[in-house]
Amino acid sequence: MKKIFLSLILMLATVQLFAQDNGVEMADRLRSDGKIYVVVTCIVIILVGLLAYLFSIDKRLKKIEKENTGKN
What we know:
The chain is mainly α and 72 residues long. The chain has a domain at 29-71. The protein has three helices and no strands. Pfam families: CcmD_alt. The chain crosses the membrane at residues 35-56. It comes from Pedobacter psychrotolerans.
């Protein structure tokens, strides 16, 4: 019963999304001016930077964990 109720709520939540208008004027304007590629490039650069930062933190943590397990 719980699964059916949850499924019903999720379906009703998605029905609301179909009622929205799909005409996004800002995206159309950016696409027509060719500036959408600048926006996408900036987002990609930011995400790559965040991923590089997270991987560097992960490497440091692994190094610290190895040092701590060697001492114990």
